[in-house]
Write a structure and sequence with these properties.
Layout: H1 2-12, H2 33-51, H3 53-59, H4 67-93, E1 94-95, E2 113-114
Antiparallel strand pairs: 1-2
Helix pairs in contact: 1-4, 2-3
């Protein structure tokens, strides 16, 4: 659960408000290929340490029942979905006038009009 929770958190915090998977907008995706390879390596190493005999001896582990694999996957999906919903609400709280471009606030930031208090996000 810890490994998949960390990966879900890393994916979710890649952007502040932009959807990773395109939920009601253009998807940001996972453009950092090095990080993606590290995610994959972490998963593979974890599974090998649990299910491959020689690694079980080295790490003093034993094979886990299938429920111990399914529950972390469900937690991973839940974390990512909840974050995508939070980002959707965050995007709905800002009004950019429907334009792709917006004016700047003079400090290099966007001059978006906030519809709800920031503390609600």
């Amino acid at each position: 659960t810890l490994v998949l929770g960390q990966i879900a958190a890393a994916i979710s915090t890649t952007t502040k408000l932009q959807s990773i998977f395109g939920c009601c907008g253009v998807p940001y995706g996972l453009p950092n290929s090095t990080l993606n390879y590290m995610f994959l390596g972490e998963l593979v190493l974890g599974l090998v340490a649990i299910y491959f005999g020689p690694m079980q001896v080295w790490f003093d582990t034993a094979a886990l029942p299938w429920q111990s694999i399914v529950y972390p996957i469900a937690a991973f999906v839940a974390i990512v979905v909840i974050e995508e919903i939070r980002k959707l609400f965050g995007r709905m709280c800002f009004d950019d006038g429907g334009r792709a471009e917006s004016t700047t606030d003079g400090l290099g930031g966007r001059d978006s009009k906030l519809k709800v208090p920031v503390a609600a996000l």
